[in-house]
Specification:
Layout (H helix, E strand, L loop, with lengths): L4 E14 L2 E8 L11 E5 L13 E4 L10 E6 L3 H9 L5 E8 L10 E7 L4 H9 L8 E8 L8 H10 L3 E7 L9 E2 L4 H7 L7 E5 L2 H13 L7 E4 L3
Parallel strand pairs: 7-8, 7-11, 8-9, 9-10, 11-12
Antiparallel strand pairs: 1-2, 1-6, 2-5, 3-4, 3-6
Length: about 240
Amino acid sequence: MSVVVKSPCVVTYLKRYTETLTMVELQPLKRLPKYKPGQFLHLTLDYYDPAKNWPESRVFSIANYDPEVKTLRIIYSVKGKYTKLMNDNLKENQEVWVKMPYGDFIFNSITDNMIFIAGGTGITPFLSYLESIKYKIPDKNIWLFYGAKEKNCMVGEELIDDIVLVNPRFKVKKYLEYKSGNERYEKGKLEADKILEELQSIGEADFYISGPPEMIQYFKQSIIDAGIKQEFIHIDAWE
């Protein structure tokens, strides 16, 4: 297990998808340990004094994969006071602090099939993994079921679509709650029954679920009710 390290970082880029959905790119100013796709970091807007306790912070899945850890990317939506504070105050060239890596939501599948179920910003740990395999064909079959409220809330599409073009073992279905008429997307929310029905012929699979807590609980229970053992169910439950 990597030793957790604290480092100041500079905000090098902000991308606003909507008024409340933002991607933040960070450049660490100190050498950070390598992380595994699916892991997360703590981020604080406050200055960290090593002689004092770590300040108030929030956790965010790392949304990119960089073996040299020269760039870190997170994606957040405004869900409370701290993310609202981030939304109102974060600017390019600002210094923030992170500590990392944390988490065991990593992709050590014990079957030949990996099922990714992502709701909203729950796509972030999957983006890290997909970036890590972008230029190679993995030895697993991968299905991604990705749901968002509307088109501009769906992040990471360029990476996802690029991998679909070159990786025959990677299949994707995207769902929009408020569909705009584009045939590339299914209309409505992610539904466990439909996903399980579509996958019934593939045999054993590892399920990875990331999204809002109520979505995670719904899918976890639905998958258990379908007779799948808990050892095949992996959840990203830090929210």
